[in-house]
Amino acid sequence: MADPDIYHYSLEIVPLDCNFVPADSAISAVLKLLEVKCLDNQQTDQWSHTHIQLVGLIDPLCQELICPSCGKKDSPGCDFFFPLVEMLSEQPPDESDVEMECCGSTVKVLSIDFGDKPKFAKFGFTINNRSEELDKNTIVEIGDLLGCPVAQFVEEELSR
Ligand SMILES: [Zn+2]
After folding, report:
1. Are 149 and 8 in contact (CB under 8 A)?
2. How far is the CA of 105 from the centre of ligand 1 (A)?
3. In whole angstroms, what is the distance from residue 65 CA to residue 72 CA?
4. Same domain for 83 and 10
5. What would the pLDDT profile of 122-158 be if each residue is shown by its tens digit?
6. Whether this model's pTM surpasses 0.85
7. In terms of C-beta density within 10 A (0-12 exposed, 13-18 middle, 19 or more buried), how is residue 114 classed?
């Protein structure tokens, strides 16, 4: 008999400025705050990269984005998203261009707005085993502590 599907949830918190990397003291202050706000099994990891990364998964079936060239909100589908994800696995988004399906313009990948998620970031927090967002006041407080406003989104991953 097959094992039951296991869903793994995490809450991602990233600065709205994708280049932003906070000071160590600010990171410690946020980790302290999250320790109070989260349950024992919701462990918070901080991460940072030398290059900007795409944080969170693209869902080609229902993903909507806003074209930075013509402003159209569109769901371009698998033929657009799969090559994009593959490209971003090989080169960072701030060095990548892509041709939009809506208007044929070539745009910087970094300038694409994916909506709520995924986001671009160099630095972020991942709270494991958490499927609920933090309340708005906490998100504002985290932004204040870090020195840059942050966005949050829940990521769901099916591991078999
Ligand atoms: Zn367009």
Report:
1. no
2. 6
3. 8
4. no
5. 999 999 999 999 999 999 999 999 999 999 999 998 7
6. yes
7. middle
CATH of the domain at 10: 3.30.70.260
Q: Are 10 and 51 contained in the same domain? A: yes
Structural domain including 83 reads: 65-109
Number of domains in the chain: 2
Do 121 and 46 share a domain, yes or no? yes
* Interval 48-71: pLDDT, tens: 999 999 999 999 998 999 999 999
**Centre of ligand 1 from the C-alpha of residue 15, in Å:** 26
Ligand 1 centre from 99 Cα, in Å?
Answer: 9
Question: For residues 76 and 107, is the Cβ–Cβ distance under 8 A?
Answer: no
Whether residues 81 and 101 fall in one domain: yes
Separation of CA 25 and ligand 1 centre (Å): 42
